[in-house]
Fold these 3 entries.
Entry 1:
Amino acid sequence: MRNRTAAILICFFGGYFGVHKFYLGQVTQGIIYLIFCWTCIPALISFFEFLGLCFMTDREFDARFNYDTSSPNMLDRATSYPVAPSNRSKTEATATLYELKKLYEDGIITAEEYESKRRKMLEDI
């Protein structure tokens, strides 16, 4: 499990070479940083990534970098977002769809999950 504080420190001290990208599991981006480290562009980008990591909440960090579908400790995806039964009113279904969209925008669920649940909700209404 990745630690946000460790990611911040690695980004600050090793961001020039993309070490933080390897730590966060973004190997392709880490290799790109290594290839272009002589241009100082990765240093500039990593500075802004450092700021982003500093202001990111732990929940956002976990949703983005620590989500593992095989781990039994993580929330079950099937129950981590709202599902409206067919007997709900249209107002409640609309509110549930809004919450589902918010979870998609926050990166907690994927586009495929969002679409499948949205279609199921619309069929049930």
Entry 2:
Amino acid sequence: MITKWSITIPELTGDEPRSAYVYVPDAFEEDPEARYPVLYMFDGHNVFFDEDATYGKSWGMADFTVATGLPVIIAAVECNHHPDNGRLSEYSPFTFDNPEVGHVRGLGRITMEWLVNTFKPYIDAVFPTLPDREHTFIAGSSMGGLMSLYAVTAYNHVFSRAAALSPSIWFATGRLDRLLREAPIAPDTVVYMDYGSRELPFHSNMKRQFSRVASRLLERGVLLDCRIVPGGDHNEASWERQIPFFMETLLYGVE
């Protein structure tokens, strides 16, 4: 069952509505006492429905979870679509300047404060969740992948596991490295991180930076599942094919 409704994020876009989505396993109807882990996802409009997706192709997360019978709730929120770098701003922990996109004000911390202090408490109050850190995960791709890395490190007291697909780790590399070095990270933290082989050439030194981030996570004791996807690209169709891999990692050993 997927519930879709309109919300606002006053701290970011005032009273402008955007969509929120929650998938709850159908098994809940047969067992109303059941409670489930929660996977929070960025770019919620791309998660479930092709008709809502930016480029007409979603991840199809509900199709996969229904087909596999995975006992997990998925909660996702639409991104900011403003043409003046709205998405980049909300999904960047750091302010930066780029010759292609110009100046981007990093509002990632505000985004996460809203998600942790407003959205998550609502989800826990309304839906049959297991609200503790052990059962709270986060995932995203591209800038959403960067935010997933940010969330599981800067907000490690809330999220125990994260999946970062094709994360945008090609800018603000120094500040990202400092975050990974200094953030308090619990030893049971699990991270899935990948990058497509076809997208590695998109940014100079991408392979080196990917290796650097992976090494830093390993140095911090993170339980890392890291891979280069053969033939993988930077789009929803490619990320959809990675669902079995990152969901296996996120739910592995979870009771």
Entry 3:
Amino acid sequence: MSWITRSRQSLTNFIQRRETPDDLWTKCRGCGAMLYTRDFEANLSVCPECGHHERVGARARFAMLFDDGAFERIAVESPPDDPLKFRDSKPYPARIKTARAATGEQDALLLAKGAIKAHPAVVGVQDFAFMGGSMGIGVGAAFVAGARAAIAGRMPFIMFTAAGGARMQEGILSLMQMPATTVAIQEMKEARLPYIVVLTDPTTGGVTASYAMLGDIHIAEPKALIGFAGARVIESTIREKLPEGFQRAEYLLDHGMVDMVVKRHDMAETLGRLIGLLMPKAA
């Protein structure tokens, strides 16, 4: 073996030992820019090039929302994992197990309480990474628990939605969460406490048809997809081309479906101001 071959082999081994970690860079889904992951996350997972708001998990959302990133999780009793013994290409419990391993959470909706700009609040966040944030018994139970925790503590309930709709593996039991959550919202109204919804990308299906559109105030993140049926389904039904930006946050703002579109960096400040305006003053 010549010295050139030996040198080439040594260089190859050195390069292999210094392989780049898989998560060092993040590709923006909005403009395709390659972003240094650490800087991207420090910017609240918003692309500095195009402003695209990437989907974030519940824990990250809590950390960026509550004062000093301090919050207390609200525990929710876990419902049966497979009430209908549903099976498609693989058993439903296997899908649940995979989602729990990927996210580290028991279901798609997490609850926490803490202070937002010194105002106490209960916050619920749907994680799209958990089976598309789909609404099942667990999500419905968590939503009701969040509303009742807010009532018990005389606090507002803020809900961050992100879902593909109802969880088909739970059939009618999933659809029953629509009236269950609606009743919980009515309890909030009777207690004269604000219920604020923040619509994130994507919010669709039965979630949009229930608690996502029953807030006192509706906020949306920029360019979030919000709707009931998908655009292709609508186009094939009405046999017409939909307008540019249809079902996006800015389009819905222009047509009166949401009250405001707020960037992620301004979300905590906006929510704190709204809570201060909406919460009943102490006697």
